[in-house]
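User: For documentation purposes, I need each entry recorded in a consistent format: the amino acid sequence on its own, followed directly by the corresponding structure tokens. There are two entries in this batch. Please keep commentary to a minimum and don't merge the entries.

Assistant: Recorded as requested. Entry 1:
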Amino acid sequence: MKYIVRSLKYYCYLLLLLVIIIAALVLTGFVEADLSKMFVNGYDSLWQIALIMLVFAIIYPRFGFSSRTVHLYGSPEELRPTILKVMEDLGYRLEQEQDGTYGFLRRSGLSRALKMWEDRITIAPSGAGLEVEGLTRDLSRIVSALEATRGEDA
């Protein structure tokens, strides 16, 4: 269900972005306001563009969200201060905590809006360390920051 919601959000986001771009082009005078002259196929181009955007929106959550393992060992109680400090430094706030699993959200409202309120990062203990799940583009930074603390604690 989460996949479908993310796809729908991304589809609406893409359509809104297209409308803003077309409006900006019309307002600046780069193109005429008539859609039949604006696109090669006229009004048929609208459903073609919408279909292409739908394909992208369906594919995006598969690649846009993932999980990675952080090789940071210890009990959840021992790791808690490290996790909270790193996430605070990266601009996240603790949303929920349950059984050693943490849920974080961006502190900035603008950042949350730009990420379509899909900015949740979940950190859970696993056999190999910690499992971090969220937006793929944010995970590298988070995983690197958490693993860098390993050297500081030694």
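Entry 2:
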Amino acid sequence: MKAPNNSLPTDPGSNEPYKNSSFDPDIVRKRLIMILLISSLQLVSMVIMRQNAPLYLQSIDASEFFVGIVVSAFAFIPLLICVPGGILMDRIGYRKIIAFGAGSMIVSSLILMILPPPGIVVLTQLLAGLSNILVILAAQAYVSNMDHPVNRTRNFALWSLAFGFGLLAGPPIAGILADLWGFRAAFFGAAIVSALVLLVNTRLAEVAPGYRESLNWQGLTGLMRRELPQVSRVSRDLIQKPLVQLAIGISVVVLFVITLRMSFYLVYLEQVEFSSTRIGVLVATQEGFALLFRPFLAPMIHRIGALPLMIGSLILGGIGIGSVAFLQDFTPLFIAAMLTGITPAFTQPISMILMAQSAPDDIQGTAMGLRQMANQAPLFVGPLFFGAVSALFGLHQVFLVAAVMLFISAGFLFLMRHYLVEAYSIF
């Protein structure tokens, strides 16, 4: 990393100055705790909103295809701004990005509190998608730069644990709020949790390598004009690396399937007459079962290998998601949810680690932006695709199609295992 610049100002949200080469264990621990808390809270807020938005639309008799449009809207703006967002993060600091994202999430949640018509719901999801990607992208880049690179695997494993905890806690909270007090209270709860993100962020120290001072709008637009061509070249260089292709490819396939979790999986459970609380428990189970493995992610990678872990998790996830098409009782659906949760438990953290290790320290925000841009494509296209499958062939068929996608991905990794041996040396 670059040598420290002693002229850098003291971070306004902390009593400690910005440091980019000295990693005091106590300071690193403090930073890690706060960014993990921010990430967990952000995921809770996001899940409360996204779980209840499709159910609210169902309650006002919106079509299944329109539900797909609303879920897709959440990923539309992130698809466009991930790489530019990465540029801004590396230059103006991660804290400002987190603050803007959390504030925007509050606005989106408060608009939903009025229980608007479907068209307005689409607009709120566009804003919420922007808000969420900014916070998550900044948090990932923060984890990349807050400590010595040798600790990245451990720190990303902890970050994934915090990420998973947010996904675990969010669905039951979303379901209980909706069952006890209705959708209006649930959306207000999302706003409150986002306000807590803002509060914790005020005490977060800045670690962005390019952090200097605030830029005005003219400075930001000039920065984008100067940096985008260079970032495009850097992105092209990154995407040519086999490990980057592996990281992005697996992440894209898994996220394509995961779009069911906040769309037609909810619709299916609603159709079999599950309460919002039960729906929340099943959604949380997918992440909760994954949490059992995440503390052991690093040793399992060392012992088993990254590729075998990903192949096995894809197969088990395919069995879990495919079996949903044949199940209507809570207990077997609970078991299927556990199997489904295994897939992102391993594939997503490994993907992040591969991406972080493939990029220089001073463009971690840009690298994560490239990965997130690729990730947003399936999040945008997935609900539309599964909505079309549901309309043409029936709701049950979307789960079988998703299972086939995971099985094919596992088979591809197995056949290509001899060409991906570099992945073993990363860990």
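Summary note for entry 2:
Residues 1-21 have pLDDT under 50 and may be disordered.
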